[in-house]
Every structure is written in C-alpha cells, then in structure tokens.
Amino acid sequence: MNAFNRLLSSAALGLAVGFTTFAAEAETPANMLVIANRIDDITTIDPAQSFEFAGSDVSRNIYNKLVNFDPLNLDAGYQPDLATSWSVSDDGRTITFTMREGVMFHSGNPVRAEDVEFSLRRVVTLNKTPSFILTQFGFTPENVGETIVADGNTIRITTDKRYATSFVLNCLTATIGGVVDKEVVMANEVDGDLGNSWLATNSAGSGPYVLQSWKPNESVTLVSNPDYYGGAPAMERVIVRHVQESATQRLMLERGDIDVARNLNPEDIAGARAAEGIAIDDELRGRLMYISVNQKHEMLSKPEVREAIKYLVDYEGMQNSFLNGQYTIHQNFLPRTYLGAVDENPFSLNIEKAKELLASAGVGPFEIEVGVREAQERIEIAQSLQNTFAQAGITLNITVGTAKAILGRYRARELDMYMGAWGPDYPDPHTNAGTFAYNPDNSDEAGATGLLAYRNAWDTGGLTEKVAAAVVEGDRDTRARMYAEIQSEFRDTAPFAVMFQKIEQTGRSEAVQNLNLGGAITAVSYWPVVK
Length: 531
Hints:
This protein has 19 helices and 17 strands. It is of the alpha+beta class. The strands form three sheets. Strands 1, 8, 9, 10, 11, 12, 13, 14, 15, 16 and 17 form an eleven-stranded mixed beta sheet that branches. Strands 4-5-7-6 form a four-stranded antiparallel beta sheet. A hairpin with a 2-residue loop joins strand 6 and strand 7. Helix 1 runs parallel beside helix 9 and helix 11 packs antiparallel against helix 13.
C-alpha cells in the first residue's frame, strides 16, 4: 500500500470510529465465532498438501492425528489423540500405536487403523510439498506397503534407521498427520489422484469441526461436529473472513461485527486496546520473517554479497516503528523456546560495511526483484529494504502478489529475492534445520520445493551433513549444541537473513475465552472456545 492509500485508510477509519459512538453496536451470536484474518495463502484443504499458515488453522480443527497437542496445556507436549498408547521396538525403528476405540468420522464411518495406514501412505504416494516431513524417515511409494502397516486395532510404522522417538511423534503432529476417511476419499477419487482434487475443497475428518465451505480470498466456514469424541464444541459455527486491511479489522471488531481480529498493526492495536469490551492478547509464535536470495543469480551467489545484504536491513528501525510490539529481532532459524535456540543477533544496519563487502566482491550497482505477499507489514518491510538497499547501490524492485502467486514463483526458483515468513511444522529443531540448512539434492530435477534451501538453489556448503547428524543424536544437550553450531555457520554463510520472530497481537471481544493460537508449536484451536 502506498502512502496516499494509507492516508486514505487512516482517514476513513477516523471517520468510521467517530460515528461508531452513535451507532448501535452489533454482536455475533453466542454460539458462533467470527474471525477476521488474512487467509489468501490457502491453496488447498487436503492435509497431504496444505502447507500454509491459514490452511494449517483449518486443518487442525477438522482432522485428528495419532498424537496431538492439548490447546489448554501446550507445555505438556504431544498427547494421545487417535492413538491411546504406543510402544517402541528394541532397535528404535518401529513404533506401534494402539487406536482409540469408538471414534467416528464426520461421515459416520468408524476411524480404523486402516484409515491411518491409508492416510500416511497417501502423503508419501502423492508426494506433495509437505511430504518430506514423512519421507525424511525413509518412506517411499515403493516401501510403504511394508513400512506403514495396519494390523487389527494397531498401526505400525518402521523408519529407515533409529531416530529419537520424540522427533518422529512431533512430526506426526504436523498437518500431514491428519487422518482422512478412506472410504469417503476413495469414493471421490479421480484418475488415480487418491481424492486430492476433492479434498482440496472438502473434508473427510473426525475432528471437532467439518468444513462447510472455503471461498478463496473470501471466507472459510466450519460447522461443529456434535459427535466429536472430545465433546461437541460450544461454538457451533466458525467463520473466518478474509480481511486484508488492519484498519478494517479494527473497525469490525469495535463494532461487534467480528469476535477476533488477527492482523492488527501496532497503531490499531493501540486504538483497540482503549476500546471498551476489547482485550489484546500477546503470544510468541514460531513464525520467522526472513529474506533470501537465489543462488542461481550471478551476483547474489557471491559470499560477500550475501553478507552485505545482512547489513542492509534496518532491524531496529523496523522493530521500533511499524512492527512495534509484533515482531522482535531474531536472526536465527530456530525460534526462541525451541531446543537449540540461540539469541545471538550479530547484524545491524551498516551501509558502509555493506558497501565495502560489495566492493570486495567486485560488484557495482545492480537491480533485482523481490517477491512479496500482499500484506501490509510485509510490503512495509520490503519498502524499508528498498530504501536501505538503494543506499548501497542495489535497486530493489518490489513485486506484490497473492500468496499463491508469489509462493509459486518462489518454489519454482524464479525470484531473485523472496521476503516472507516461515513457521515450524512440528516442535522439534529439525523442523527448521531440515529446511533452512538441508538440501541433499540441489538439482532442478529434485523438485524438493518443501525445502527453503532448495527454493534458493543453495547447496548448504556442508550443513546438510551436519543437520543429518544432529537429527539422529540421542543426547539432548549434545543435540542442542550441534544446532547452535549449525546456526552460527548458517548466519555467516547462508543466502538467508532471518530478521524477526513473530509476537502475535490479537484483538478479541472480552466475551471470547479459551482461544489459543498455538504458541510456537501448532495452529489455532477453536473447539475450546466459549463465550
């Protein structure tokens, strides 16, 4: 948004708020939760393919998993969900889960070990972007018949080597761990797609909510599952409306048109905080804001240029102005609270140092394109970068687009530079180490689009092997030290500049209780909410 449009929006908000006092306040129904959020990143609802923030929110409320997180006690870590217990073989490679009895899918079909077998095999066979979360354990379309096996009321998974059990179970809490109704999905299969096209806009789960509709760039509507094994949710309907502008979200919240506003900027947080009946929640999330540069680019692939870029970011200026209270400086790929997280933030804005590095690389003025999702704070970050880059002779052309469009080009390795966010898929350090610093096959043919290192055509310079060693280390303290060392090398050499960690500030009606956004480890949960 340019300055003129921001001025118009602020003026409109001022007029609207001025008249709110005289208007009758609206109120959402007592059994309905209405949320304003940016949901234009949703590309599918299929848990085998969904890999975006807003999609994860939807999936968490539709699908059960073998293990999951209690939204009212996230500190407890993973807990039984569809599995009531599990055992591990002596060699540490096989985990056998015992299924919970009496759980029903939304269709009325019983949830069976056979459905878990189908769901996990389906992830591997479809081989969509997030499939690496499972295939990293050695599962392939050729071997799933022997490595993921249902037997009566149990499901057995066998990995290619011994891993920490907690690592495997944490991976099963990811969106790809969602268990689908085999009978319903296969009834909607088209041309051998295992129901992928149908599940893009429909659901076949057993969770607390059923997908009623997803209208891209408009809304998601969920209706409660009265037969949910954990008890029928108090909110019988959840509507998430796509509202792009912070000012509009604030106005809707203050008027009572919505219960929750999830994308308020610092200015609107301050205004909403002063409004009667509105509460503001601050929650440290696992989401990181970063920039990265394509190593296929002749100049961006030079080590000195990669380092220079890290000195062309006004970290403090952004944190203390338009990101105030919503992002904190963090220059490492493991979010705070994760095993192996470190607080070293060695970079700061230093134009002269950046110029020296560019000169040492023999690089004169040049021009690059940065892709940015259409979201206010991301555009403002890109504009800040455009300003500081220009001071060192780099012209930064900003391309703003929908999440789907920008991510599509990023995954295809087409952007010179990407500016965006990344959130962990499961609460283990490998969730980020295994994407930022791991890329075993950098060829275009590999198509490893789930790996950020791959998207930037970076072969990691030896970090891939160090990440592979850290993920199988059994000693917790040793493993933490290994990740600290990996991050130190990553900060110095990677084509990434991790800038900030998200503090999500949510405006909500004081009537709404028990809304948990998932902290740094999972997605939002609607089923505990009461009014």
